[in-house]
Amino acid sequence: MDLKNTVINLMPAPLVRLFASPYIAGKGIGAGVAKAEELYTKLGISSTVDLLAEEVFSREDVEATVQIYLRMVEALKDRPYASISLKPTSLGINESEAYCQENLRRIVSAAALHGMHITLDMEDRHFTDVTLRMFKAIREDFDNFGIVLQSRLFRTTEDIQNLHAKPCKVRICIGIYREPAEVALQEKPDMKEKVYQHVQLLLEKGHYPEIATHDEPLIRRCMKYLDDKGVSKDAYEFQMLLGVPRAELQQEIVKRGQVIRLYVPFAEDWKYAVHYLKRRLAANPAMVGMVLKNMLGS
Ligand SMILES: Cc1cc2nc3c(=O)[nH]c(=O)nc-3n(C[C@H](O)[C@H](O)[C@H](O)COP(=O)(O)OP(=O)(O)OC[C@H]3O[C@@H](n4cnc5c(N)ncnc54)[C@H](O)[C@@H]3O)c2cc1C
Fold it and tell me: Is 213 close to ligand 1, i.e. is its CB under 6 Å away?
């Protein structure tokens, strides 16, 4: 572990909360709903709302998590600008594939009644096969279900080729997990080149790419490709994380009449959020300086 990660891991939870607060909507479903509403009404930005509850193990905790997602569906059902994201490790994959798939199905079917979209997040490489299997099985029955693919993995081109005969919404990103050289690209420029290629392949295969990156040159390159090809503005969207400072670019996308959607996480309990927040801080330690600057009002 490098020095930066060691320092961040030693930080007490309240300090992590303070420095990483721009990344999180707040505590409770109400905070997630309020942030989604504010983003849309003030800025024309859509949201995908998620509960921070990684590492859920007991059946009791998994069921409590399912219930929260079902309440989120109810709370967001009249807001077409909001979708929901969820993770297999929060919904029972540690117990069994069948159990997790059943839990996912309960949430996706509840959302389908309201035409609400659900995205299945992608975790590290150990979960790729099982996540794709569960996605394909449920996508067979529900149109409102999409998935995430990580361009850094060598397998992703083939995964796109074999995704599904039905059109799918696919969030394409470099992938947040460090993966070994046997299975994944190691250099960011190579990963971003792959994102560009995967966007094209997804469109060729009839899917809807959700281009999830904060890299402005990559976004502009994708925009040019989409414009040159005359791809309809409702055939793709851009996505970013709440808290990453890209306000101008986001407004430019809104003005172009394209969808820009932010990932809006909230926590039921701060202890669940700290792990996520530490990861975000490790990705961008400059956030510490930004928060201090905001606090000092300069
Ligand atoms: C909506 C959304 C959903 C995602 N879902 C998943 C998922 O399911 N599975 C998965 O593995 N990964 C997921 N990711 C993470 C993604 O894979 C990347 O790790 C992340 O987006 C950073 O990659 P980048 O393309 O922005 O490039 P980078 O090179 O990492 O970032 C480009 C620039 O953006 C800024 N930036 C990037 N990240 C941050 C940050 N955290 N704080 C402040 N500034 C930052 C920096 O200025 C940086 O130089 C998701 C990302 C988004 C936007």
Answer: yes
